[in-house]
Design goal:
Helix content: 25-40%
Radius of gyration: 22 Å
Low-confidence stretches: none
Mean pLDDT: 94
Strand order of the largest sheet: 12-13-17-14-15
Structural class: alpha+beta
Largest sheet: 5 strands, mixed
Number of helices: 8
Number of strands: 17
Strand content: 15-25%
Distance between the termini: 41 Å
Length: 341
């Protein structure tokens, strides 16, 4: 799959001996590379760099094929391969049978076909989301007695930090994947689980969580007797991603191409509407955005008006060209079901 590096570890630093011999490969890194190449392909086209454009497109096509063959385990995507070719994150693995970020990025990257994306997400929901404990595990089961040496992650006791606990950064990617698949209700349920406030809703929960209920924790322990206890708090990586998932994945607001505001909500059917106040780059231009959901949808075709002028749109994303004109703008949008042919 050619997703190797001269160093060790990928996003999960603790897996620093999975491919230390230079032969192991990271399936997650393959999805990440697929996503990055997509961004660079648009740049090579813009710059008329035909050589790189062709090279990246061909490599990305091959990468997608390999990820969906060698990276697919049958019900979810594998996490990696050791130097000797042994898969990690497979149904045949004794420990770390499934990992959250491989499933999340198969969808975020756009590399997974619809059927595999749905299956991978369903498997992650079933095997990694612990409703009763209110956590989303990074991987399961944790490393403990396996003869394989994945790295210093195995030095953490089972359920602590990356070793089978909730690593909030990765858990938020999984929430983003649910939103990408149009499952707004589930995405919001999981986002609610990740909110630190939810871990301090009762005196019993406070005693279990033991850390601040107003700051995002990097990790929450996932195995008895520490299940539900918070670890490293005030973690900006997780806090930043929680903000992004809320704004970009749920409310669906994302700036692209410099001055275009893309609006593509993915919400719970029970949300009748929501409001967003958005300020432009010049700090003087502002937009009041009101999104209505009269049909109780999670996603749908976005139609509406900008400053009273009707905008025709037949897509699930509404693109608003922002003007730095120092004025106030009113945007009224409605989520509707696609017209049946």
């Amino acid at each position: 799959m050619a997703c190797r590096s001269s160093g060790t570890g990928d996003w999960n630093d603790g897996m620093n001996r999975v491919g230390e011999g230079g032969q192991g490969e990271s399936v997650w890194l393959g999805f990440f590379l697929y996503s990055i190449l997509g961004d660079f392909i648009s740049i090579t086209k813009q710059q008329k760099d035909n050589l790189r454009h062709k090279k990246y497109r061909e490599y990305r096509k091959l990468l997608k094929k390999q990820l969906n063959s060698e990276g697919w385990d049958g019900e979810w995507y594998r996490r990696a391969y050791y130097d000797d070719g042994t898969p990690l994150g497979s149904s045949d693995s004794e420990e770390c049978r499934i990992d959250a970020i491989a499933q999340a990025w198969s969808i975020i990257s756009g590399a997974a076909p619809r059927t595999k994306a749905e299956q991978a997400l369903s498997s992650a929901d079933q095997l990694l989301v612990a409703e009763h404990e209110g956590i989303i595990r990074l991987l399961a089961p944790p490393f403990d007695k396996t003869a394989k040496d994945p790295g210093y992650i195995k030095g953490y006791i089972p359920g602590v930090r990356e070793n089978g606990g909730q690593y909030t950064h990765g858990a938020l990617w999984l929430v983003r994947a649910f939103a990408e698949m149009g499952q707004g209700k589930r995405a919001l349920e999981l986002l609610g689980m990740l909110s630190p406030v939810q871990h301090a809703s009762t005196p019993e929960a406070v005693q279990r969580y033991k850390v601040e209920p107003y700051a995002v924790a990097a990790d929450i322990y996932g195995e008895p007797p520490l299940t539900g206890m918070g670890g490293w708090t005030w973690y900006t990586g997780s806090a930043g991603w929680m903000y992004r998932v809320l704004i970009e994945s749920i409310l669906g607001l994302e700036i692209k191409d410099g001055n275009q505001l893309h609006i593509q909500p993915c919400i719970a059917p029970g949300w009748k509407d929501f409001n967003v106040q958005f300020r432009g780059y010049d700090e003087e231009t502002d937009y009041s955005i009101h999104v209505s959901n009269p049909e109780g949808l999670e996603t749908g075709i976005i139609t509406g008006t900008v400053d009273g002028v009707k905008r025709e749109n037949r897509e699930e994303v509404f693109i608003l060209k922002m003007e730095n004109d120092g004025k106030h703008h009113e945007v009224e949008l409605t989520i509707g079901a696609p017209t049946k042919k």
